[in-house]
Give the backbone structure.
Amino acid sequence: MLGRRSWIGVGTIATLLAAWFVLTTMTGIVSPARFPAPGEFWTSLRQISVRGYAGGQLLTHALHSLKLVAMGFMVAILTGVPLGLWMGWSRKAEAAINPVFLIIRPIPPLAWIPLAILWLGLGDAAKIMVIWFSAFVPSVINSFAGVRNIDKPIIEAARMLGTPRWRLVSEVIAPAASPMIFTGLRLSLQAAWTTLVAAELVGALVGIGFILNMAQQDLYPGMILVGMVVVGLLGWATTWLLGLAEKRALSWNMAARD
Amino acid sequence: MGSIRFDKVDKVFGPKAGGVKALDNINLEIGEKEFVAIVGPSGCGKTTCLRMVAGFEAPSAGVVSVSGKPVTAPGPDRAVVFQQFALFPWKSVRENIELGLRNKNLPAGERADLVASALKLMNLETHAEAFPHQLSGGMQQRVAIARAYVLDPDVLLMDEPFGALDAQTRVVMQEELVRLARVNPRTVLFITHAVEEAVYLADRVAIMTRRPGRIKQVLDVRKIRQAENWDKHPRIEDVMDLESFVHLRTQIWKSLREEKSANVI
């Protein structure tokens, strides 16, 4: 079951929850106007789960956000990883693409929102585009670095064995770079969630960002906290799933890491 | 098939003018099924010689040819065994050995037979499904040698293959290589800085000067080995004890030492 280190983590979370209860409900050191008490959080959670809030139940909002993140993330890794691998492998590709990349990279993903809305309207497509842009960068950079850090003899061994180009990419370069690629995927996923909430704050009709937006306008701290916690949990769950996939894909690498 | 020829080979690293001259007028012929070791002080360019035969580097002047054809690119006719093994860690032992055969588009049945015999040759049968990280350094280098041998290459290029192994494993692998050379002789270019290893394994030993590397002397070990009947001793330490062995080793050692002291002055 849970290992020793996991129990320490559970202990920390339990302590924080207890402190929350003590500081708000028990002693009132933190006033409910500044930070909602556990009771208020629970009431808000029940309200949105059963009766709904901001035009839908929690599940509807959460699934919608999850869908946007999943789509933006998928598009980002399907474009970012191959581009990064290509730039890592071909000095010419790097020379051609890197200057553009260096200029685009410092632009915050959220700065694309106005343009995305202008191009794609207020619907999901614009949000997916913004999530894609933010999740794209870590995938490219880490895949690129992954290829550049491959031990030279590994590539030389593959060439000595007469490995044709496509097999060199699929059976040597991609697996050799895969520990770094997965690091990129994890950062991309984080970036996708971060950007999602911001993208939904602008012109959404459903989703967790929309919950946060409505709760802010309603001066409803309990519901704001619900939205935040849900994003946190969804982010944690998707990262955990990605971790499982990584463990499966990199089983050959695990001994070296521990 | 399987001769190697260095013909007036120079190698300069860096810009054409003002670069570092690593090799200067290398001339060497290695006959078919001959085992030649190159020894030399570190940085003398001996590994560069091997890398040019492998096709990883091109000569700055002169020609490196294998079986009469100039080398242009790496290929499975010139199998390389690297000092750091260079196995694919995500592939099992079997998959590592099989990759070169798949690249040759051999049918699955034939591949399985060849892999099985390579595993047997290197005593790896019980480790076929293991991953490299589960094996000791000596075992990993056995896999790398099996991966090279299974290609049935014209020449075998070994770049300090036992340099990363501990002393005991090293001795076992040296004996193993002698056994292999008897069962399945190949043209071998063997790079090492260990003089004893070179004398024990090679038919001829080429001694290089310090940078820019030149071939200073080529010693024929074969004649002495046959005359003194080294091969009747199954163990390496018994061969290394023979007067003829010690004499040769000392001769090479002195020659190398001149290079090192010249380097200091």
Summary: Residues 243-264 of chain B form the longest helix (22 residues). Residues 4-77+153-264 of chain B form a domain with the Rossmann fold fold (CATH 3.40.50.300). The interface with chain A takes residues 54-56, 73-76, 78-80, 82, 84, 86-91, 99-100, 102-104, 131, 133-134, 147, 151 of chain B (CB under 8 Å). The longest strand of chain B covers residues 20-30.
